[in-house]
Here is the input.
Amino acid sequence: MHSFLSRLNTLFAFTLSVLAVLTIGVFLSTYLEEYHETVSISANKPIVKHMTDFSANRKKNDLGVLQLNLDMDLNSLFDWNVKQLFLYLIAEYETPSNNLNQVVLWDKIIKRGENARIDVRDMATKYYFWDDGEHLRSNNVTLTLAWNTISNAGRLLHTRANGSTSFIFPDQYVTSRVSTGKSSGQA
Here is the structure.
């Protein structure tokens, strides 16, 4: 007859086979699902500063500063196969040296069970908006929200949201130093 270990091995192999079939079923049940949603994005008070980028080449580059308004409800993207969403806001623009420049300005991870309704006003960008030169002044920038859908079983989907916004940076630099009229030696 069969030994205890042989029966245990058979039971383990059968269990793994059933789990594999169930995992494939989970993947196939959401394969045709489209994870699209409409979002509202706007930018306030865009300014350009000409500053030294100490994190890279120590040259003076353009730094874009702006405030963001985001309004979205992504609860409908969660089904039983979605574990989490990785959201990120992309700024896209053209320069003479590059046809497409993309800069990530903000990101967020939303796990299943968390509130996926986001409504923020006048939020600063999470990451600096550095240009690798002097091409942000008077440049048209498009903000688009995208996300990766991380599923329990299946593929990693990259989706762009329905809805984007464009704005133009001003044509003048803003200085970051404020003159107070007093020298450091006066009381």
Remarks:
- The beta strands are 40-52, 60-73, 82-93, 101-111, 117-124, 129-130, 140-151, 157-168.
- The helical segments are 4-29.
- The radius of gyration is 25 Å.
- Confidence is low (pLDDT under 50) at residues 179-187.
